[in-house]
Each structure stands twice: as structure tokens, then as C-alpha cells.
């Protein structure tokens, strides 16, 4: 160990035998909210980061990858996305990407933790880019499960942007078959949902494949895909699900045309080619999805 | 910090402000060879791993991803790959994947460090899978730059499987324009080369883009692509280069047909679809490649 | 983080917010015995170390400090120590120091874990220095609580050389008032006991003071003292207890005379002056001992 | 690794193969001053801490141990300490302890780094306890070597409270024989100096013994002693030096009487007994001091 200039390290525990370390430049905020441990940290090469319960949610350097990968495939595949629901997504960056779609007329964001949103609003202005002030946006601070069960509004696209469903966190009941069934009811006929679904690292595929199995028990079309978000320390997985539309059937040209016509400004991560290519999964991931039997249910959470 | 069951940790330094941690189950070998620090370590979820100069080269759990991604795209794109040169690749897993191609009649592997190869042979039998004993294989322990300059044999495919070109390591002169020019001379007219080219993490693209720029100054066709090798802790980049053949022009069906006909046994990572899809790069990576001006030369190494 | 030559680290968790790191040169042994996790590790500057349940027990570089500090004050204070019982002490170094006392005619060592002793015997020869083969020594592999309750042999000195009484470990019932009462019965009238009693770091005095309170409920004379064992990462505490003899009443000259006459060979850590001086505790430690009310009992362990 | 509540860690590098970890609660200040890297961090169990160049200088939990051990032995041994010079000591806690001596009429503190003092003044109020505002105190922001060479004022006690003399730091020329000769000239006939002198860990005694050798080449009486400051992660060493007075000759009663008469308020660490006992060094430390030949000189620094 040669003396480092920086002596402050952020350790993200990735599993019982794995972790990722970031140098800390500054700790901007740290508090136990009623729902989770909330921190905003300035991390070495990645810049400002939102951290919830010790897990890096997104960083200034690569949040564009995560949020473009999460939002655009589903919205681009929809023929005419007007009403969008964002579940979670406290940074406001998911909302920001949703609102870049010119067709969107209404975007409701439901996040349980008002403090997360307020802190992100003030400390991470480039993450939301003013999205919270867009007149098309409505912010709701409520448990999303409760909210969606109580509101029968239908949406064209529902983006679920949550932490992984660890038991202690606030998100566990937002990954179950019962929840997805309500989501299915709230989705218009040609609607799609999209969600982050945990790592796709070869030794840690349970979450990704169980989410896939659970979605497949509710939706006829489930499309898993991956993206590299370097700050996570492991390769990452996403999934869309829908009743009719399969985003894997669109060509590069389809995606390019829709990107050009529908999205304001320039994308930084996605291209038409990447939109079309990203569905090609590694063979071992396909194999794991094919043999997964685990369903996530309200009374059978993934981790107990 | 709750008491972990394992107290022994492998820390891979990824940069001045970033690291990746693995639990250590056992240290099987550790020695300073004349060329580098050589270790074989049993790592938590990843199993046995080859470590050179503190960098994880490959692990039992995910070496198949790295080696399939490195070897097959170039060999599949070649019309009739018979003679293959492997530079580096001490584990023998690159050689193993090369020899799965039924058309290959001769595979020369040149690695400077006999001790690495001998230790891998005895401690990592599943990495080489007996490849060192294949009658088509020839092993040479010599500096690859010296060897290739001294031998005018021509090859259909040349796989360069080396550590990143840090100054102190043995590999620096195997990443320069001068070296690639000799490689170009040793390549048959429809030949291709393939190499690992470092991380493609958004904050650390210099190596990947400088290698791309340097290759492009020698070869008319350079095809960068990426693969997720989780043990590396960051997303990873590869590149092929050639005089005539462009692997991006092959269809899914082309790749599937060639995989089925040419390769013995089942692939675990690659599919025809992934072979065709993997060339779609993130837009920000493309942008960085497009504006990179840095050339790696014998008297202008990347890191000084 | 500048690239360290060594990438393998031993992390000893000292508390929820504190740890100590050692570079690992080699892992010589690692196994889950029926009683604990047993490891022999070669640690950077400290050399070979015995590690039980992730806690460094002693290292080649500084075990002489720990074992001299543990053994000699009690034996030197006794007028004529002939029969000595060692409880725990798997390395054999406590036994080694006991047997350096020329007056000792019988030393029984009771350790629950035969594998620990066997591994120390073969991998840590300088720790035991042949003590296991001394004709005065008897080795018993049995639970010490059970053994001492079942055997009514009386001893002049009883050395208790155990890990701290964490719940999961094998040692918890060897730190309770009930146990000390049996120890009291097995001790000759002018006998003394000595034990390691955890850290004396200012923020972590509970174990040291609760042991002191518990001993004081059984023995009329309890003498706490400290020693610096650097590998532990925190300052360390010891205690003697007795029915009649108070080692704090001996002068420097007394200790020097007894060291010279009774102990074979040269001490490396203790001097007569240090024997006499070591009882002077920091004022804040005294204050904590004075106000501690916590008793450790069979049905009221320290940590639950 | 089980998920820790805190993910932010302060890593103090203690040597090439050793480190100490503290959980970080908050980072209150972090800046590169013209002289060093300055941080105030709230550390897990230790509370607020001053950190210079990555080294913990003192913490709320145990700074009383360090500062009482550094200041009082020398002042108590002096027959009538009126004028005191403090070199370094940015926290103000050394000054605070000096000013508790009722006899002191003038205390000059010379620290090169105004920013350290200002930050400590505002963020560490319990460390200085108002000492900077004491009318007897004079603060000088200047290189202490330069200041002492330029001022021929004589002092009864000189306390040198600096970081270890690593080459890059500002302190190296304040540990040399040339500097101690000037200090000797500025000391009254019955004066004493006191200084912290690095760790006394068995594997890392060079600094402590070279300082001792260097002091002994200038002063006839040099008295090394130790104290446990847990936050340092290793046992710590101090030394006094003088022309005539030997603090080792005072009895427990002498120290108790002087503590009671001279010092305002209650001590928290030192007692008369500890003052008298602390000079008893481990035998191996004595042996190392006896055989040390290394002199620290302006043109022969300890680390190059």
C-alpha cells in the first residue's frame, strides 16, 4: 500500500465475497430517512452519486447510460406514448428522459421517499435537468404499491426504477407477481413496462432470472436486455414487458427514425443500432432464464 | 462492518480512485517470475483465478466469456482459418478456443513467461483443457515482439491476449504501431487479428481508444466490440483488425452456420445473434473513438 | 490508490466501525474445524500468524510480547509455582513460557480444538519451541469447562489464554462467574490466575471491565494490566486474580531477582522494571473499572 | 462481507503492508493547503478527527491521552515552568494542556499552517478549549525552524508536536540534529523538551530509535516513554530531553503532589503512578535504542 492521496473510500458490498471501491471526494449529504439510508457522495472519477442503503444508484459520469437504457427502448417501441408512469426514480433522471419524448403529455412519478427527491432536486440538478418543474410532470410521494392499487388510471408506459428487492428495503413488494398483475391492469393495450432488474453477472443471476420468470407469468412478452453501467461494478440487466408489442422486432432504421422524430436533443448512450442489438443475450444468460423456476410473490420474496 | 466469514480479500486496483474486492478462499501460488508477479488465487464466487501483477486475468467462473469473445469473432469471420498465432494467453484458454475450430491445422502460442504457462498447466487444468498437448499446437517461450520480427511465417488469424500496456509490465512493446506493422506483414491477405483492449468504462476510455487509433493507422478495417467479464469489475473492450474482411458484415445466420459447422462442442457465451449484435457500440464510445488522436508508438508509450 | 505490490489483504474487523489490515504473503492453512475457523497466514511485516474466527491470535513478530505479558507476572508473583494449568493457548507459546520456569514440574494444557494444536505444532514451530514434547507437559483435548469441573487437581497458577467471549465462539462459558468459581476451587491457597481480557481502547472497554467485575466477584485480589501487542491493532489488557498474593506489591528488584533465578534463557519483552510498572493504569481505565456493574454469568453472557 | 450500515471508510496507511480502517460518519472539511492535505472527519467510534496528509493526528475520543502524555511529564518535571514554546500542535490541544499549568505565564505556539489552526479553531472547539484566546498565548504562523533560528528567546519547556518526518511533509527539518541544537540553545538551564516520536511497534522502530539517537547526540538526558493512543492503530512513543532534569527520578508522590498543585482541573489519562511508571520500556525497545546508530541530519533525512 503506497500512500494514496485520498484516504476516504466508499465500499459497495456486491455480495458476500465481492465489493467495489470508490475514492470519496466529499460527502454532501447523509441521513437515515424513514425509508432508507440516503447519501449524496462525490466519488472519484464518477462525480456526484446518489447512494441508497449503501448501493450506488447513479453517478454524474454514467447515469446517462442507465437512464437512457431504462427509458427509451420501451417508449420507442410504443406506437404513441402519451401517458407515462414512473415508479421510484428519485433522482428525476428517469423522468427527465421520459419527458424528452415529445409525444408524452403526462408523466406521473410515484416515489415513497420525499427526502430522496428533495435532496436530489437540490444536490443533483444535472440528474433531473429541471424535469420536476415540467408542467407535464406530477409528483406523488406515496408507496407505489398502494398508489397503483388505489388509482385506476391507465398508462402507455410504466417505468419501474427501484433498488433491488432486498428484504429490508422499501421495494420488495414492487417486484412481486401480485404487483405486476396490477401493473398489467393499469397498462393500455399496446403499453409496455420497463425496469432495472439487477446484475447479469454469471455468478449472481438469481434476481434477474426470477424477475424474468415472474414477469413472464403475467405478461406474454418479456424482453430482457443488458447495459454496462460502470459505477455498478458488475454488468447490469433490464427488462421490458408488454401485452402486444415486442421491441425486438424493430429494425435499426425503425429505431433511428423514432429517435430522430420523437426525442428532443441528442442521446448520449443509445443509437438505433444499439437499440436493435441490445436484445442479443449471452447464451449462458438465456440458458439460466430458460430454466429458472422461481416466482417472486408477496408471500415468497426473493431474499428472506 | 459485521464480521465476515472470510477475512482475506483480494484488492484489484482499477485506477487511482477505484478498486474491486474479491474474497480469497485460498492462495495456490504466488511468485515473482523474471517478468511479472504471478499468482493463482481461489476467489470467492469466481473460483480459481490467474493474477498477473495484481490484475485478474481470468477466473474459472467467467473465463469462457473472455476467451470466446476474444477468439471466435475473428476466426468465424475468416473464410478458412488454418494457421493461427496466439501472442500471450498464458492460461491456454485462448489456445483451447482456437483449437476448437476444426479447420485449424497449426496454432503457435508465443508467451514470454514459461512459469506462467507451467503454473497454469498444473493449477488451471480446466482453463487449457489439454490444449497444450494438442498435436496442432506449438509452444514458444520468447518475447513475442522478437519472435514475430524474426519469423516470417504467415498466419490467417493472430490473437493478441496480453495484459494492458502499463509501462512496467512485459507487454508495452506489443501494443505499438511498429508492432502492429509487423503483425500486418505476418497476416495472410484475408487474415484478421483480435485483441483485448482494456476497459470501455466511460471514465477510462484512453487505452481502448488509443489502441483503436493505433490499429487504424495500420489496418484499413478495425472493429471494436465489448463483452461483460464480471470479474474485471468494469465493462471490457475487444477489437479485430484486418486487411479485407469486416466481421460486422456477417448476418446472424452466417454466424450460426459457421458456429455449427466449424466449432467442436457447444459454445457457452456466444450465439450467432450475439456475434452479429456485439459491434453496436454505445454512442459515447463511438464518439470517443472518432475524436481520439493518440497513437501508441515504440517511443511514445501510452503510460510513462 | 497507487498499485500495491501485494494485492492480498487480511482484514480484521475490530468493531462495527473499525478494522485493521495486513498484507498477506501466503495462506498456509485454512479450515473450518468443529469449533472455529482456523487459519495460518503469513502476514506482511508480522510473519506467520494464527487466526481463529477471523481474529489474529498471535504472530511471529510480536507473540513474545503477548505470551511473556500473559504468563510471567503471575508465575513470578507465586512463591513456588510447580503445577500450572493452561486453558486454551493452542499455539503452545503460553506453554513454552510456562515451562521456562525451572520450578514448574507439571504443566497441563487443555484446549478443545485438537486441530488447532496440531496445525500450530507443524506450521508454527517457533511458537511452541518444542514445548509440546517437554516431559513435564500434558496435553488434553477437551472442553476446558468440562475438564476442570470433572478434575479436582489443584494448581499453583492457571493461565487462561482464550479468544474473547463472543457468542458464537467456543470460549463463552470460560469467562463467566460460574467458571471462575471452579477455577478458584482448583487454585492452591497462594495461587494466581492470569488471562488476556480484550482491548483497553477507550471506546471499547466493556469486555475488559466486565471481566474485571466478574473476577472481582470471585477473587479478593484482581490486578489489571496492559501491554502493547501491535498486531492486534488496539492496546491490550490482561488481568491476574488470586486469593492472597498481590503482584503489585513486588519491587523492581524482587522481579529482577526472580526473573534471573527462575526463568531459563533471556526474556525479550519483560524486565523487572516493566513487571513492576505495568500495573499503573490510565486514569480513564481505572474510572471505568470502578463504575462497571456488569457481571458475566452462564445465563448472562456479555454479547448475545 | 455482510452489508455494513456504513459504507464510507477512512483508510490510514500505516506501512507498505499494514493499515487501519475507520468508519466515516461525515467529512466536515477537506482541502489541500499550501503545506499539506487537511481534513476534518467524523470517525465512527472516535468522533471528530484532524487528519493531515492522510494520517490521523487526534480524535475527540482519545486526544486527551495523546496530549496529556505529550505535555505533562515534561512540565511536571520542570521546577518552575513559566515560558513554554509549542512547535506544531495545530489542534490547540497541546496549548490547552500547557495552559492548564498555573505557573505558565507565556506560551508561544508556532505552526506553519494557518489554515489548519483556523479550521481546528472552528470545527474542533473541544480540542483547543478556548486556549487560542488565553491572554498568555501567542500564535505565530511561520516555519518553526526559521522562527526559532531567528528568535533568541529562551523557554523552560519546548513541546514539539509534529507529524512524523516523512520527506514530503513540512516537518522533516524539525527532526534533525541541527534543529535540536538550536532548540538546546533556546532552552533554559533546567528546561526540558518533549515530542511525539512515532510508533513503537516492534516491526517499525526506526523512527523512534533514530529520533532517540539524534536527541542523545545533543542532550545529555533523553527519556523515551510510550502511551496507547488507540486511534493510531499502533502503540505510540514519546521522548523528553533535557540538560539537567531527569523525569525518571521523580516518585509517584512527587508527581501526585505536582499534579495536584500545578494543574487546573482533573486529568483524564495521567495519574502520578502512571507518570512514574511510564518510563519502563519493553526490553526489545531498549535493545533497539541501545544499538541504533542512525542520526537524522539536515542532509541525511530519515526517509529519502
Structure described in brief:
By secondary structure, the first copy, chain A, is an alpha/beta fold.
Provide key terms for this protein:
homotetramer; 304 residues; alpha/beta; Spermidine Synthase, Chain: A, domain 2; 2 domains; 7-stranded mixed sheet; 5-stranded antiparallel sheet
Written account of the structure:
Four copies of one chain form a homotetramer. With about 300 residues, chain A is of the alpha/beta class. The first copy, chain A, is built from ten helices and twelve strands. The model of chain A has no long low-confidence stretch (mean pLDDT about 95). At the A-B interface, strand 2, helix 9 and helix 10 of A face strand 2, helix 9 and helix 10 of B. Strand 2 of chain C pairs antiparallel with strand 2 of chain D.
Order of helices and strands of chain A: EEEEEHEHEHHEHEHEHEEHHH
**How many domains make up the 3D coordinates of chain A?**
2
From the 3D structure, determine the CATH topology of the largest domain in chain A: Rossmann fold
| Structural Rg of chain A | 18 Å
> Which structural class fits the helix and strand makeup of chain A?
alpha/beta
CATH superfamily of the largest domain in chain A: Vaccinia Virus protein VP39
Named CATH architecture of the largest domain in chain A: 3-Layer(aba) Sandwich
Intertermini distance of chain A: 38 Å
| E-strand count of chain A | 12
Please tell me what the overall shape of chain A is: globular
What's the CATH class of the largest domain in chain A, please?
Alpha Beta
Give a short account of the largest sheet of chain A: 7 strands, mixed
Query: What's the total helix number of chain A?
Result: 10
Helix content estimate of chain A: 25-40%
State the strand order across the main sheet of chain A: 8-7-6-9-10-12-11
Overall pLDDT confidence of chain A: 95
Show unreliable segments of chain A: none
Beta-strand fraction estimate of chain A:
25-35%
Largest interface: A-B, 50 and 50 residues
Oligomeric category: homotetramer
